Amino acid sequence: MVAALVFSQALSFWLGWMSPLEGVAERVMQWTPLNIATFLLLNLQGEARVAALLGGAAVMLLLAGLAGGFTWRLPGHLAAPLAAVLVGVPTFVLFQPYDWRPVVLLLAGYGLGLALSDRGWIASKPKRSSSSASTLSRFEALFDTGIVLAGMGLLIGIGFGLPGLLAPAGRRLFSFRDPALPDFSYPGMPTPVTPLDSFYVNSKDLLPPSPRGWNLTIEGLVRRPLRFDLDTLRRLPRDDRYVTLECIDNPVGGPLIGNALWTGVELRRLLHLAGVTNEGRAVMLTGLDGYVESLSLAAAGSPDVLVAYGMNGWELTPDHGYPIRLLVPGVYGLKSVKWLSRITVASTEEMGMWQQRGWSQPAVVQTTTRIDVHRIVAGGVWLGGIAFAGNRGVSGVQVRVNGGKWRPARMSPTLSSPAAWRLWEIQVPV
What we know:
Structural class: alpha+beta
Helix content: 25-40%
Number of helices: 11
Mean pLDDT: 80
Strand order of the largest sheet: 2-1-10-5-6
Number of strands: 16
Order of helices and strands: HHHHHHHHEEHEEHEEHEEEEEEEEEE
Largest sheet: 5 strands, mixed
Strand content: 15-25%
Low-confidence stretches: 118-136
């Protein structure tokens, strides 16, 4: 099974399919209690995906072990296909993979591996003496364990290394420098713009989908269905704007928030080119991973909504949605579909994946602030942090200590957009 997983993982990514291991791991994540999943996300962040992949691999190895044990004594021409069926049935029934093709590929590799193994699956199994059947040398046990561990390591390497090798290297779109705010450049304070390698990542997907053969289609209730490749999109008038993106999972004071200079094309421009008919009332947005979200046509027609292909002067990274993603200021990140591949104009707005699970449909960002740093100074304590209120903007921050009076904080300049966070600092007597 380890060899079949390695083979199917690599080939699925090459073909642009979701790997079978990823599909199982995602279902395991969905079964994880919300408080545990949130704890892992906040504390492990990107490394939580490795844990989920290992959990998915453990589940598949368990199924393979049970199937192999059940079919061990059967004739070779029956054992291999029956074992594949015994693995495939619970995989389809319990985990309901989004794509059946990689699962069939995995099962074929598993059955072929059994047939070609040294245990005689093709013809008849070699007879073992009772003594050899009941004992296994320590060397064999260690060797088998080493093979499994090496295979698991190779799976993780393929999962996180192969996408980076096959995805095009990020290109600089234009020269960009973080706006200098020397009055707020204290140790521990966030920078006005979050560096790409520090920007939070959260997704239902364990691995970014393959961009091979990608294009963006606009269809549905439009007069001129359109299809764009990345170069065509980049030839359209470009917009650059500072926008803070926050995850709906972010707790008060949490780290799942970041500010960037986003580059892209206004969504309303694309809809205008396609010519929305009078029946159009909503826009359905679909990513390469099958993720679906929706916006009312009025919201989609806002000049703030971008089809973004750049962050901080660079192309999007695979984790942030390469080739393109949606960016909807003022709402939580679940609306900003990554790996956007299809825009469908419809007559009614439908609930997306997370709304069907009870999350907010409008998903309007709640006003929040965060204390990032504090230090004792003469006469009190110095505090500093960020404040964010979606696209409503932040006019000021007030602080009080131990029920004392409210004191206004000193605010950083607005970064040319109310949808970007603002930094604040204050010294309070304590």
